TrEMBL record:
Gene3D superfamilies: 1.20.1050.10, Glutaredoxin
Source organism per UniProt: Linum tenue
Name this protein carries in UniProt: glutathione transferase
Top-level EC class: transferase
Sequence ranges assigned to domain GST C-terminal in this UniProt record: 88-216
One GO molecular-function entry: glutathione transferase activity
The enzyme's E.C. designation: 2.5.1.18
GO biological process terms, semicolon-separated: glutathione metabolic process
Keywords on record: Transferase
Amino acid sequence: MANELILLDTWVSPFGMRVRIALREKGIKFEYKEEDLTNKSDLLLKMNPIHKKIPVLIHNGKPVRESGIIVQYVDEVWHDKAPLLPSEPYPRAQARFWADFVDKKIYDTGRKIWTTKGDEQKSATEEFIGYLKTLEAELGAKPYFGGEKLGYVDVTMIPFYSWFHAYEVSGNFSIESNCPKLMAWAKRCMQHESVSKTLPDPKKVYEFILQLKKRLGIE
């Protein structure tokens, strides 16, 4: 049976970017459908009736939801092409742990940086830098989180690189000066076409956040 793949996504979503990177890294063709999250399509509501969120990967008419689950699904179905998760159980569990760390810490703390002011923003910025330093320590001297090749944790984390500029401008701090090894890792990931083709211009992400703040009534 032919593989029909449709990805419901939106350009600025770091979660959707993960799926696009995974598919492109494996050389898998897919149809991309941009969703307007202020006016969600009937297809999205049908394919994700519980959360009504992107990304959703529709594989031969069947929906797979939640970015981490989708990336693992893609890796399992096309396991012979550029595997992302380690083959051994323990390193695989470790990769899932660090991907879960990214999920639980990076997005929400980053959001606090651009939605708050004063002491609350300062606290969020310090917390954010702390999480990045934890990731930098885990990376160590390795080129990628999983070792010598782009893997699951890299695919999970690298989309936030396109949001770093927005965080820095909003919180008035420098990620490069605080976490130089992590920034070197990000630039290394950007050498992969799957990543560079997926991540949007950081300045456009910042412009999107400014518009979002206006819509949300955040000055």
